[in-house]
Structure formats: structure tokens, C-alpha cells
Amino acid sequence: MTKTVVVWSCSHADPLAGNERFDWLASFLYDLKPDMCIDLGDGADMRSLNTYDTRYPQAIVSQNYEEDINSYNDSQERLRWKFKHSKKKRPFWVGMEGNHENRIKKAISNDPRLEGQKYGVSFSHLQTDHWFDEYHEYANSAPALVNYDGIIYGHYVASGNYGSALSTKHHGYSLVEKLACSATVGHSHKFNYYHKADARPSPLNGLVVGCFKGKEEAWAGQANQEWRKGVAVKRYVENGNYDLQWVSMDALRKEYG
């Protein structure tokens, strides 16, 4: 049975960015009625737990753990509310832990005194069991890789033995060559697609799904212009193959904003 699957990554819910884009995506999903929605991770930015801005007071003053958590859970509620208040069949929701969600675990590992469900820091505050039918946390200090319908999904695929993210100019091609199967990842905020058809019964597809960020980042400089914002729609998904459609955030804004 073929499926329709919507995939996105790196939405970085952040109290400084606002969550209106999740309303646009929610309306799109409600109209499309996909069989599955896959969030490849970094849905929560967790700016308050980053280790990069500690030398800059102007950045630190805008950081708040509780607001980070509230922004993420608000984004997830917005994505689902139309399905919750209707009789339409809802999609099967899959989520994955990205390196930004992993900041919570790193913070606790660095200082166990921070941990606490009520007054401290806890991964459970993301409520992944509530939002997702299946959620895949890190395994062996790296993003999980999971197979759905002949396609490997993960926040990123590692390069070499040390776990750094595979990232090349021809990223989609590199995924197919490394894994010898269809694969879809996020993480880089860039878009890349490679389709390989040969003597095998089903073609292979390597896809990097860009991002769903709400704002540009000062730390990224010129790289902001290289990021492609939107979601990927896979139609007729079967045995690793599919028809690909890209829906930009601008298109979502024009249709639903």
C-alpha cells in the first residue's frame, strides 16, 4: 500500500521567533491528510542551554529555559489542534531527537544537579510521548536511524567513526552511496535531492529536507541565504521510492497565513 508522507526538520521553536508558521503547516496537513508526518528533530531550539553565547551578555539575557519548553510544546499543539477538533483521520506522527533537543541531556550530564521534572531540567518536559506515536531518541550518542517503507530516516547520518554529521556539496548522493539505500535527513538546513535508478527493482533516493526555521541567525552569517525553508511531501511511497514535492514556507504563508 502506497503512502503520502510529509517530512520536515529543524523547525527550531524559539520564543524569539514566534510560532505562526506552525499554524500554516497545520492547515496544510489538515487539507492534505497525509498518512504519516515525520519530524526529523531540532524541533526545539533550546537556546537557553547552548554553550556558544556564554560570553555575550546581550544574548544571555534573552534566554529562558521555561520559555524554550513552552515554545516547543505550543508549536506541537498548533500542528495537531485541527485534527484534535475534527473527525478526520489523523496522521501517524513520528519524531526524532536532534542535537538541539539533546542539549537537555548534555546539560544534565555536565551538571546532574540541574535535573528535576518539577523544578529542574528534564527531557520529559518536551512531552514526546504525548505528541508522537513513535519517538526515537539518540542511540550511542548519535541520532537514531529508523527504516520506514524502505527509507532510512534520521536527524543526520554520521561520517566516519567519530559521529560528526555527513555534509557534502552533493549530500543526497553521498547518503545513497554511503548507506546503499534510500535515506532522508535534516540538520544542515540546506536542501538536496538525488535520485538513482539502475537495474534494481526500485530506485534509491537521497533527500536532505532543508529546515522550517522561523528566523535568520546572527551566528550563521551568509549561510542564512543557503537555507531552504519548507517541508517535503512524498507521494506514493513504496519500497524506498516516491514522487517528491517541495512546499516552501513562503507558499504556506501565501496559502494559509
In short:
The protein is built from seven helices and 13 strands.
Structural key phrases:
alpha/beta; five-stranded mixed β-sheet; 7 helices; 13 strands; globular
Walk me through what this model shows.
- With 257 residues, the chain is α/β, with parallel strands linked by helices.
- The chain is built from seven helices and 13 strands.
- Strand 12 (230-238) and strand 13 form a beta hairpin.
- Helix 1 packs parallel to helix 3 (65-84) and helix 1 (20-32) crosses helix 7.
- Mean pLDDT is 93; it is low at 57-62.
Helix and strand layout, with pairings?
Elements: E1 3-8, H1 20-32, E2 36-39, H2 57-60, H3 65-84, E3 92-96, H4 102-110, H5 128-131, E4 134-136, E5 146-148, E6 151-154, E7 158-159, E8 164-165, H6 171-179, E9 182-185, E10 191-196, E11 204-209, E12 230-238, E13 241-248, H7 249-256
Parallel strand pairs: 1-2, 2-3, 3-4, 6-9, 9-11
Antiparallel strand pairs: 1-12, 5-6, 7-8, 10-11, 12-13
